[in-house]
């Protein structure tokens, strides 16, 4: 049996924080896990920027409501779910993901949670589990699944290394240079072909 564990942002939907940066004009919010490998450093920086600029949860949620999946993402995900089980393993948050999950047909999502204060500001974040992407793959392997993992950022690398097969999807050039062991695809057609070949090798 095989199963796919996939990142969300950059694979199926645009980067949430980049969209928030575009809407608010706060350029510092453009930094993502493609740029900073330490997720805790990145999130503390984001929370500091939100506090400094008086941005609340609803401000971010309003941006997310305007976002759509990447072109072709829904069709690809529908095909993938017809072939095998899929878990979207993301470092986003429950309070962010709802509108995007609806537009993707509600795939299974593992993600984190935000701590929200009474005035609707984001006071902190709570990881579902430290290094949760890697541990999700480890858990699937204990259930005797062959795991294919795909992502585009530093925070996906441990998941890709742990999987039976890891794939970089539209990664930045520096990630390709740093991790040449992973195959790279740049569109859903290439990804579909690679997965079909891998599923054929893995069998049912």
């Amino acid at each position: 049996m095989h199963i796919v564990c996939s990142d969300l942002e950059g694979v199926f939907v645009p980067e949430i924080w980049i969209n928030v940066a575009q809407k608010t004009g706060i350029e510092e919010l453009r930094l993502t896990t493609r740029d900073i490998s330490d997720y805790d450093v990145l999130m503390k920086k984001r929370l500091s920027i939100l506090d400094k600029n008086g941005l609340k949860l609803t401000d971010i949620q309003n941006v997310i409501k305007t976002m759509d999946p990447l072109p072709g993402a829904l069709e690809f995900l529908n095909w993938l779910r017809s072939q095998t089980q899929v878990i979207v393993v993301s470092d986003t948050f429950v309070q962010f993901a709802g509108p995007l999950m609806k537009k993707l047909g509600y795939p299974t999502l593992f993600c984190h949670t935000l701590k929200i204060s009474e005035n609707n500001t984001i006071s902190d974040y709570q990881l579902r589990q430290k290094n949760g992407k890697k541990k999700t793959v480890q858990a699937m392997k204990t259930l005797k699944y062959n795991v294919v993992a795909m992502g585009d950022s530093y925070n996906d690398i441990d998941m890709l290394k742990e999987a039976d097969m890891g794939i970089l999807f539209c990664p930045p050039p520096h990630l390709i240079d740093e991790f040449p062991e992973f195959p790279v695809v740049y569109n859903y057609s290439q990804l579909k072909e690679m997965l079909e070949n891998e599923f054929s090798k893995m069998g049912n």
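Strands lie at 2-6, 85-93, 108-116, 122-126, 146-151, 165-169, 184-185. Residues 39-53 form the longest helix (15 residues).
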